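Can't attach files on this board, so I'm pasting raw text. These are the components:
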Amino acid sequence: MYKLFLAGRYTLGRPVSYLAMVAIGLAVMALIAVAGIMNGFLAETERVIRGTTADVIVTPFPWDGEVPSRAKVAEVIEAHPSVKAAAPRFSRPAVFKMRGRDSAMGLSKFAEHFMVSVVGIDVENESRATEFDAYLAAVRNNPEGEGYAVESMERPFRLDRGRIRDPELRFAPLPRVLMAHSRMLSFGLKVGDALEIVTIPDSSDLDSKSFDASTSTFVIAGAYDTSYDKFDGATLFVPREDFPAWAGTDQEFNEVAVQAVEGADLEALKHDLEESLERELRMAFEVETWEDRHATWLGAVKNERNILFVLFGFFLLLVCTITFSVLTMLVQQKVRDIGILSSMGATAGGIGAVFALSGVMIATLGGLFGLLAGELLAAKLNTVKDWIEATFGVQIFDRRVYAFSEIPMDNDHLLNLGITGVTVIAAVFICLIPALRAAWLDPVDALRHE
Amino acid sequence: MSDVHPPAAKELVLDARGLTRRYRMGATQLDVLQGAELQLARGEIVAIIGRSGVGKSTLLHLLGLLDRPDAGSMKLAGVETTKLSKAARARLRNQHVGFVFQFYHLFPELSALENAMLPGMITHRFFAWRSKRAGVRERAKALLERLELGERLKHKPGQLSGGERQRVAIARALAGRPSLLLCDEPTGNLDERTSESITNLLLDLAREHGQSLVLVTHDPELARRADRCLTMHEGRLVPAEVATEIAHPSASPASGSPE
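---
Top answer:
Structure tokens for the assembled complex are below.
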């Protein structure tokens, strides 16, 4: 009985024990928060990339012959049992400038333009194959999105002429464009403003010293929000039917976004589609999963998460060093007590157990404190971030850098328990060294200890 | 008073024969005990006197099973101890031996009552403690009250005087009802008045409970009140008067005076 009793008194009666507990707790808390952020970052990256990219993207290889119709390609793709929907569409790099906002700073014409990817979509197909509807709804459901949402979810490119802000453009049959909400806010654009979007038409000879550019004026019909800042900052949606005239192409599509059924094996689907498209349409298609397309970015995020395990190793080392130091100090201070305990009949194992239990208490209480604090921090991370930013006037999370509007957090309780458990076990294990030293101490030497 | 053996026909609590203990300090070998012998009857009080460094504390550590002799045998409560395992010696120590030290050696984190309860806590395992706790507590409390510390039960050692601390140490030593009490200069750190009070209490309690007592002391007054008084000479225990004779031959009539 004395083992638990003395361990409790030794542990709870010394301020240094509480310091050790706090240190262990902070280490566990930090690790839980970092693990949550890294997992959240990866999960959110995967979610938004998958949502904005579709599960699988099918691209026809450059082809001199006639590309099959989009209906035929979609039919072959949708014949696969793992495919839920296929949306042929266009995607092309372009630059845009805000109409009527010519710079007065003497910048070159090109400096007034912004790089962008223009995606020509069929709304119905796109909604089936990607999260397109959700992106429109995100603006509609956001209180700050008032005045930016599309007029109709079914016909998002529809815009009442009266809302076109430049009176000169009200009666021109201008195509519409959807722009990211965050982008509109940063440029100070409103629904009804016009953009001049420039691309290089297929007819241009890129080998010549100069080539023609194709410029069209588009009117902003509304905003979307994927919450993936990297995508939002660089993507404009236009109706697929307006795309060929602007882009100077006679094709019907240049890629197909494919939505797979829930739980489908995307790698298997990719290979099946490559085979079936080549077999049925007699031409080669490149089929990429969303992970293939963003392999570099995802790889970087996964790599950062893996670095976490190295970090975990350092945290464990820190925790073990702290616990070891505190226990070694305790044994050093209690040498005389060890002699007295021996004189009263305590066995060497019992004496060792007193100090091992003391280590268990420090590690367990510290670990529990860390688990609770970590869970709390994980739950309130963005509130804490907002408070720090508001109180100290510093920006600790820049959405432009990290591509998300808030710190992503995937709070995995099981992982948190694992982190705490491994930390506690490591700390307890290291405590066995000073505990064994106490057990092996000669009682006579201990009694004579000054 | 001066015999190295206890009165015949009495039950022996301790029977140590030929105890040898040597220490090696570099190239030098120090023979501290060279065949020391001590038999102690139940309830008997023996004082061991002698100058510092002659091996009194070493002997006490051997008698209390804290150390092993290099040679010799020792029976405690009828059990031959020299071949016992460490754990078995610890159990025997818990059941039969109580220590009182010069510097009290109390646990500063524990109250007087908790200090006195510690031997009981060591005796009983975790699961048995619930049923034994009240008995152990009552025994410790009764001893502390008997030692006039009834008002100080919850006081930590830092809140007690030297005499009070030694009384707590005595209560702790007696709490496990040991058959043998080993006291290493129990009054060595106390003033004369407190020393006398502690001596009275210690001897009275030992006699009350029928416990055998080995007292290592420099205090001649305390030694005089023991049943026997021995001293260490050349690593052996000898009657105190004999030692005096050896040390000062001319002072003893037995040595043959020129007169």
